[in-house]
Amino acid sequence: MKLILLGTTGYHPSEQRHTPCLMIPECGVVLDAGTAMFRVPRYIETPALDVFLSHAHIDHVVGLTYLLGVMHLHPLDRVTVHADAEKLGAIDEHLFSEHLFPKKPSYESRPLADEVAVADGGRLIHFPLAHRGGSTGFRIDWPGHSMAYVTDTTASPDADYVEKIRGVDLLVHECYFTDARAEWAGVTGHSHTTPVAEVARKAAVGRLVLVHVNPAATEDDPIGLDAARTIFPATELGEDLMQVEF
Length: 246
Prior knowledge:
Radius of gyration: 17 Å
Number of helices: 7
Number of domains: 1
Largest sheet: 7 strands, mixed
């Protein structure tokens, strides 16, 4: 199975990164719809897409407006957007207000079910995350391999979601701040390096890829990889267009 990191920053795009959007082409699954959504057409392999939204903050949903272009470049039989019902309502009312965007793309909105079947025998479940306005994490299991996506939350090895991701082959987790800015993680509802690595270790995952990094960080290592790898050696920094086999 291959996951493509189309966008790996949060809040706003930078010269190097777009806001959150991940894709599993062979399953037609897209996780979040940030500014990197414009990259989806080059990777489409299926006649339909299922887009799962962690929450409705603008950096995670603005790419829904890009679906007009996505479907023009690559006509699809169906696009379904899955999210918490309240978030779907907010998107319809605000993002697709006629004062903000002229035409809503032709997609189906579907409140998150307890379990969603995905291609190749996969099973997606979701779980709540602590974040202002509420966020949602996802886990997908296929026969023989699994992954989880956790973003927009303050990581803690004691958080309830740790048991939901236990034993996955791949964990993609937000890491907005370095440990030097731990206080800001608590203030903004985001994560810093050490607790994310501790989550990966406690959940006994196979591999950790860090995303949703600070777009204002200009250093080559914006999250402190050495600190993370001291706790959980199989840690990588996600980059836009990086392909992760799992």
